[in-house]
Amino acid sequence: MNQAGKALSEFVAEGTEILEALGRDLLVLDQQRGQEPDPDLINGIFRAAHSLKGLSALFGQERIAKLGHQAEDLLDRLRLGKLSLDDRVLDTLIESLDVLQGLLAEASREESTPVMSQRAVELGSRLANMGAASAAVDEDPLDRLELDPQVRAVFTEYEEHRLRENVRRGVSLWRVRAAFDLSDFDTGLGELNSRLKPLGEVVSTLPSSEPGGATGIAFDLIFGAKVSADELAAKLQGTPAQLFELKVRPAAGSEAQSAPAPVAQVVRRSGAEAPEEAPAAPAAPKKSARKKARSSKAGATSETPAPQAPALHVVEPVSPKPHRQEPLFHDESDAPTHLRSETSAPPVRTLMEDSGSRGTRSESESLRSLTQTVRVDIGRLDALMNTVGELLLIKANLQRMAEAARQDGPVTVSKMWGQELSRETRQLERKLDALQQGLLEARMVPVGQVFDKLARLVRRIAKDAGKEIDFVISGGEVELDKLIVEELSDPLMHIIRNAIDHGAESPEAREAAGKPRRARVSLRAEQKGNHVVIEVSDDGSGIDEQGVREMALRKGLITEAQAREMSRREMLNLIFLPGFSTARSVSELSGRGVGLDVVKNNIGNLSGIIDVWSERGQGTAFHLTLPVTLAIIRALVVGVSGRTYAVPLNSVLEILSVKPSEIRTVERREVLDTRGTTLPLMRLARLFGHPERTNDRHFVVVAGLAQERLGIAVDELQGQQDIVVKSLGGRLQGVRGISGAADLANRRTVLVLDVGALLEEGMSLERRRA
Amino acid sequence: MPSLSVLLDSFFYRPDEDVGLLQELVAGTDETVEPIAEEPPEEYLAFRLEEEHYAVPIRAVREIVKVPPLTEVPRAAANLLGVMYLRGEVLPVYDVKVKLRLTDKAPLVAGPDAPEPPRRARIIVVQAEDGLAGIWVDSVSEVVRLRPSMLEVAPPGVGGGERDCVVGLGRRNQQLFILLDIWQALA
């Protein structure tokens, strides 16, 4: 690769990474729609836009730099509170992400289409003109805060804004004083910050006006706490921090906001005796109570809170409410999302069922990544490096032995030498195993990468289709080979489009059917042994299997006779036939000229299979069963008519030894009776047109994927081996039943059977015969 | 357990030691035609198919290898002889003789019943648009330099019909080379 190309690919990789982070944060914002946005999140997005701007300016990508700059501007206004984050702003931000991704995709192809430029310019001007200011504030809430004007003067604009925000929301504000020794104040301060972080927001860190001792330095941290005073004090136990509350004078009309005073109060004195020993002075846990507490010690100003100041009253409301530990937000916005009224909910919500998804990839026209880069944990690489080091040692040993053997000349090889050689070989084998394992792990990425991209897509599709969708993701942490994850994105996108477009009903239709207004589309990944099962399900209208059959008949995909004998499951599976589509009108969303047959093919190319379940009125579920990796697999080596084939071991269930007399026929089709169930039998030699041998017994490899079973009759078993499967390449992809080739150690090339395709062929043979 | 020599052999085996024939060929060409400045000659790789002389532009050829054990692919197209491994890649090996009507049926060269390949037989590896592909030739003869004036269009009856993969003839002194369109021949 030339210099420019290398620089470009570096730019694309890094840009993709930034956009991923941006996308992740925006997704969280999207999920928290309607709630007070987390300032850290906004800051993170702001920083991402800023780095993207800098990066793309550096690489001469002016369109991205410009749009990045405009987005950064908007975000700056957002974080300074000059603009409030409403749905329109968020939508525009998400749109910017899409456009930036589009621009990056074009940059990676070294092109620049006028359409995209136009879109960027148009969006840029929209960003610039976005909502002038948030609602005008008639009085500055900061004036209500009892804070020394000198202290206030040193605040940056952003800190002032955050402080104002905290006052406005009625969060209890604290001055946290901590003195550290000069030698290690940075670590001490860092630790204090990390303790405070989960409890609220550190608005500003200022050097304290009071000296911190001879060799010390003291800091004042302005802190907006989300937890009660007791909890705060408890969490700060063991640090040199002292707590002083910052008083807020009630704003005009703020009485209406505050909760009614508890019916009964227990006033408990505490902390008065030894305020020096108890570094954190306890304070009132509730806003309403705080006012009361303040009145009892009026005059104590926050900037000179003498440690011997009168102890604050701890007010515990007894009944009817239990002691509250929740954050002290007095608006209802921190209520859990699911409690919020249905009508005010945004059209799409993405719900994570667990900590699943990490890392998004960019979304271009297809959801494939722009780069082939895999980010690998340095620990994994170190382990690989170690293994390689040990392999080199073994190689040196072998070399030494070879040299010794050469110099000894025609002298007979001693037994010792043989033992030594076999010991080295065993070592070599072990280390190679470790190397293989390590490399496989390095290739693994969480499927969450694709899931996150899909979540954004769902948002857009649902909006376009006028559906209200809850998109539920789980199992994003399940790991798959990078190659598989990449190849998976397009089929999943297609299935999800179908689920939203055809599966989910309109909100009105759902209500009429007595279902919740919002349809639920879920995407789950689960590891099952050597396979990963990915399920896409919806609770929509389901598939009309009779309709499917009619359609297949009309299109001549099946015959009348076949149609009569079909089971429900078989009817459902007709949707995977080429040339089939149930959509009455080809919509913009699903009707892209590719059907589920393409999806099925794509999954098949990954040695996976797809299965569908559906119940009228209850929904549809697609199950994708995929191998964890395609790179190196363990295979069963079998012989047929003198040829050798490899069968991936992860699809082999068992091996039977069968006498010819045990093979029966049902409707001229050969079957085996295994423990009471009938197993269809396929003679590999016959299928592949090899000269058949007459054996006094067959080996039958029972292969299975999902619930399909098939017996494959072969002549001999040659053992198991780890193989690296190579694709047969574009020219040979059409060969059915073969998924690739592998090199066995003895320089023999063997073909690897595509068990999924063979199963399918077995089933369709059955169908055709019916 | 295979014998020690087999183990060591496979351990130290390097497939790239098998190639390099191309360089030898290029170096060993005793070409006498003086190049003329305004008419730069082009190099062609000449090979034999059933005693006929064929040639392809040498830039289309990536390498020439001895015939390795080929693995037959069931249910594949008739002109596919099999697949072979070449330094970690699997590539298909094709027969062009049937297409050129030199024989009626592709020879059996892969699988357990195939005889040992003839000593002079080679696989020419070419870069097709969808990956590498191999072509079986009976022997590789030389690298010839042909100037445009030495080329002529294929006479009628040769270029037409099934033999549309013949793009012309090259004549050097008394020797005739049939110029192949390699991609057409693989189609």
Task: Write up what this structure looks like.
The complex is a heterodimer of chains A (770) and B (187). With 770 residues, chain A is of the alpha+beta class. Chain A is built from 21 helices and 25 strands. In chain A, the strands form six sheets. Chain A has a six-stranded mixed beta sheet. In chain A, strands 17-21-22-20-19-18 form a six-stranded mixed beta sheet. In chain A, strands 23-15-16-25-24 form a five-stranded mixed beta sheet. In chain A, a hairpin with a 2-residue loop joins strand 18 and strand 19. Residues 253-345, 353-365 and 583-593 of chain A have low confidence and may be disordered. With 187 residues, chain B is mainly β. Chain B has a six-stranded mixed beta sheet with strand order 8-1-2-11-10-9. In chain B, strands 3-6-7-5-4 form a five-stranded mixed beta sheet. Chain B is globular, with a radius of gyration of 18 Å. The termini of chain B are far apart. The mean pLDDT of chain B is 78.
Summarize the structure.
Chain A is an alpha+beta fold. Chain A has 21 helices and 25 strands. The radius of gyration of chain A is 34 Å and the shape is globular.
Q: What is the ordering of alpha helices and beta strands of chain B?
A: HHEEEEEEEEEEEH
How would a crystallographer describe the biggest sheet of chain A?
6 strands, mixed
Oligomer: heterodimer
Question: Which structural class best describes the helix and strand composition of chain A?
Answer: alpha+beta
Number of helices of chain A: 21
Distinctive features:
heterodimer; A: six-stranded mixed beta sheet; B: 187 residues; mainly beta; six-stranded mixed beta sheet; 11% helix; globular
Topology:
The complex is a heterodimer of chains A (770) and B (187).
Chain A: H1 3-31, H2 39-58, H3 62-79, H4 87-108, H5 114-128, H6 149-154, H7 157-168, E1 172-181, H8 185-196, E2 200-207, E3 216-225, H9 229-235, E4 241-246, E5 265-268, H10 287-296, E6 314-317, E7 348-352, H11 378-408, H12 415-443, E8 444-446, H13 448-465, E9 469-474, E10 479-481, H14 482-503, H15 507-512, E11 519-528, E12 531-538, H16 545-554, H17 560-564, H18 568-573, H19 596-605, E13 609-615, E14 619-627, E15 632-640, E16 643-648, E17 652-658, E18 664-666, E19 669-674, E20 677-683, H20 684-688, E21 698-705, E22 708-714, E23 716-724, E24 738-743, E25 749-753, H21 755-769
Parallel strand pairs in A: 7-9, 9-11, 16-25, 20-22
Antiparallel strand pairs in A: 1-3, 1-4, 2-3, 5-6, 8-10, 11-12, 12-14, 13-14, 15-16, 15-23, 17-21, 18-19, 19-20, 21-22, 24-25
Helix pairs in contact in A: 1-2, 1-4, 2-3, 3-4, 3-5, 4-5, 11-12, 13-14, 14-19
Chain B: H1 4-12, H2 21-27, E1 42-49, E2 52-57, E3 61-66, E4 80-86, E5 89-94, E6 122-128, E7 131-137, E8 139-146, E9 151-152, E10 166-172, E11 175-180, H3 182-186
Parallel strand pairs in B: 2-11, 5-7
Antiparallel strand pairs in B: 1-2, 1-8, 3-6, 4-5, 6-7, 9-10, 10-11
